[in-house]
Amino acid sequence: MSGVPETCPVCGEVVGVRNAVHVTVNTKADAGILDEYVCRSCYRAELAPLVA
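C-alpha cells predicted for Small CPxCG-related zinc finger protein:
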C-alpha cells in the first residue's frame, strides 16, 4: 500500500492515499462539505463521468 491507508466510501476497499483520488463536494445542504479519498476504479466508474 502506498501512503496512509484510507477506506473508499464507495466500495469499502482500503487504499493508500497515493493510489486514491481526493474528492471534495460542497453539498450545499446539512451534510456540508464531503472530503473523501476514493479508490481510482470507483472514481473512474462512478465520479469521473459526472464531471467530464
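The longest helix spans residues 40-51.
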